[in-house]
Amino acid sequence: MTTAEASTLVRLIERNPTITGAEIAAALTPPPQFEHASFDSYRPDPDFPSQQAALARLKEFAGAWRAAQRPGGFFSRKRPARIELPGVYLDGGFGVGKTHLLAALWHVAHGPKYFGTFIEYTALVGALGYAQAVELLRGAKLVCIDEFELDDPGDTMLMTRFLGELMAGGTRVAATSNTPPNALGEGRFAAADFLREIHALSSNFETLRIDGLDYRRRDTEGHAVVAGDDAAVRRTAEALAANGHRTSLDGFDELIAHLATVHPSKYVRLIDGVDAIALTGAHELNDQNAALRLVAFIDRVYDAEVPLIASGIPLDEVFDAEMMAGGYRKKYLRSMSRMIALTSGELPPHD
User: What is the pLDDT of residues 264-322, one digit of tens each?
Assistant: First the structure.
């Protein structure tokens, strides 16, 4: 192996990242692919009118909010035509643009403002402590929560209390959600379950239903791309490294085992600076905990837009039949869609 390869070929399983509360807070902004997301760049599917309706309503939500922040605010003569609730919840299947719309709302909001996943917010509370985390975000004009989790009742109720304190101080909250066990039909989020879990806040949220099909299906029909056998993947990883792309090379089983030793809030640091991820020996998983950790990892890889190169079975086939028939089916479907996209993508230009 050449010096260049040695300097840019890494192993994720040798990384043990750390992250502080301040670093988590500083990173509470939309992921790179939504850096320039706007209402104008959202493309509603004409076959699903609810997408255009949600877009129009969010524009109205943002407009009334800005009006309230101008001199006179809600006490001026020109009040919004409708009573504005302080929270909005985007309810829909994966791939219909909920995160795009959430990021678009964040971009037009006045600061201070925060955008992160449910995992990032719970990690922030864990790192700083509840009181300090509330104090840090107190006074925020907007808090956006992508992928609100209902899997852990303790974390869900912690976030309920957390958001309640922020909203009591005037913060507006926008959220999308992931639903847990058997709470939905095919590809559907369960708004009722979300609202029931945050019962203390439910009257403050307006639910916007967004129907549609996964937009990624348009370019990624079929399965995740298999890049040859293990040897071929190694050669590809070494060639990328030789060309200056910082590439990771790990065995699938080794990575799955390593993910169990790293808190999901740190997965983003696990792939920090990596241009491409190469995995050998992908196979079907039978451990649901391992599968859910892989889902969380793929979410961060997708956010960072890091291409995947893999051998073994197609990555979208790693979740076994029992998992696909269970309560986390929706999560697995989203992850499968993302793995198809990541193995079909192009390597970003090297700086």
Answer: 888 989 999 999 999 999 999 999 999 999 999 999 999 889 999 999 999 999 999 99
Residue 144: enclosing H or E segment and its boundaries?
strand 142-148
For the stretch 93-108, pLDDT in tens is 777 889 999 999 999 9
The CATH label, of 3.40.50.300, 3.40.50.1100, 1.10.630.10, 1.20.810.10, for the domain at 31-213 is 3.40.50.300
Q: Nearest-CA neighbor of 16 among 251, 264, 266, 257?
A: 266
Domain extents in the chain: 3-17+217-344, 31-213
Partners of 321 in beta bridges = none
Residues 286-290: contacts with CB within 8 Å, 24+ apart? 286/320, 286/322, 288/323, 288/326, 288/328, 289/260, 290/256, 290/259, 290/260
DSSP 139-186: T-SEEEEEEE--S-HHHHHHHHHHHHHHHHTT-EEEEEE---TT--ST
Asked if 309 contacts 276 with a C-beta cutoff of 8 angstroms, the reply is yes
**Within a 13 Å sphere around the CA of 188, how many CA atoms are in the beta-carbon half?**
11
Answer whether 338's CB lies under 8 Å from 298's CB. yes
DSSP-assigned beta bridge partners for residue 205 = 87
